[in-house]
Amino acid sequence: PEVVDQIAAGEVVERPAHLVKELVENSIDAKATRVHVEFFDGGRIVKVIDNGKGMSPEDLPKSLERFATSKISKTDDLWKLKTFGFRGEALASIASVSKITLTSRREGDEQAHQLVSEYGKKSEIDKVGGSQGTTILMENLFENTPARLKFLKSDAAENTAIKTTLKAMALSHFDVEFRIQENGKLVNFWPACKSRKDRVEQILEIKPMYEGEAVRENVKAYAVFADPHNVAKTARNIWMFAQNRWIQDRSLQAAVNEAYRSLLMHGEYPIAAVWVEVDPDCVDVNIHPTKSQVKFQNPSLAFRAVAGALRSTLEQAPW
Ligand code: ADP
Ligand code: MG
After folding, report:
1. CATH class of the domain comprising 3-190
2. Where in the chain is the domain with CATH 3.30.565.10?
3. Distance from the CA of 45 to the center of ligand 2, in angstroms?
4. 239-272 pLDDT tens trace
5. Taking a C-beta distance cutoff of 8 angstroms, is the pair 269, 177 a contact?
6. Which of 25, 66, 69 to mutate to test the pocket of ligand 1 (most atoms within 8 A of CB)?
7. For the structural domain made of 200-314, what CATH number should be given?
8. Residues in domain DNA mismatch repair protein S5 (predicted)?
9. 63: CA distance to ligand 1 center in Å?
10. Would you state the pLDDT for residue 319?
11. Where are the domain boundaries for CATH 3.30.230.10 in the chain?
């Protein structure tokens, strides 16, 4: 494989969880309503099965080429635009450091087609059986780049990172069914839901949860959160999304804590999921495709919107 692809792979797939995110994003981009993810050995083997629109046999090899995105027209998606350098790179990057078996069938096609790629070297295309959608099996991750293999953490740690990423993706796509298997064992089955609130209750396994909204100038916040008796021991149960993308943000996390301040004891953390929507011009969505951090033009507006979304409900409720 081209060195340039392997370098890109270092950016896009530092860890198995990142490549799982890329594969599942592709399934969602392909309008899948069901996504099944199986992973083994800390994510060195990953299989993603979707029922999305599929690819034509001609598109199979193309999808593994660098910059072979079929999404170039989606200029309205600012997040994608800002990470432009990484568009059409994910599959090429993953293909350069693994063995990939790509099987896909479009609606109306009589059969599925399959392509195998070993570290970027592609096979002929075969006709095979298979239902509508795309299945990507990735194996032998990093076996051609042993240095990178050494950077992987324990299987347990990589598995946890994968499951956390999938949880975030399921939270942000409530209308998609997720089925997740770890080392052959079903660990999560989340059927599609009708609303974000239902999804949060389903995934965080607390019911009922509460919701609230607030707007501060051009920042809109929506939150789903547990009552103050349902608490966590860490801040890891505060999930944050900007433009429906999972982000990490200390300031917004602080806003959630602030809203609960008088309701929680020392060492207790809220359980909440928060969505922030802001004018595309007022947020810098990324510096790096895997880091999930944003820079709000006016962070204090975002802080106040989030705190407000929780407070409006928290202050009325009879805890
Ligand atoms: P990008 O998503 O930025 O376009 P990728 O490297 O992730 O780049 O994917 C390359 C292309 O392969 C996509 O643009 C899409 O056309 C095709 N593709 C990848 N995964 C799927 C999938 N699950 N279903 C349908 N098409 C897919
Ligand atoms: Mg992609």
Report:
1. alpha beta
2. 3-190
3. 19
4. 999 989 899 999 999 999 999 988 999 999 999 9
5. no
6. 69
7. 3.30.230.10
8. 200-315
9. 6
10. 77
11. 200-314
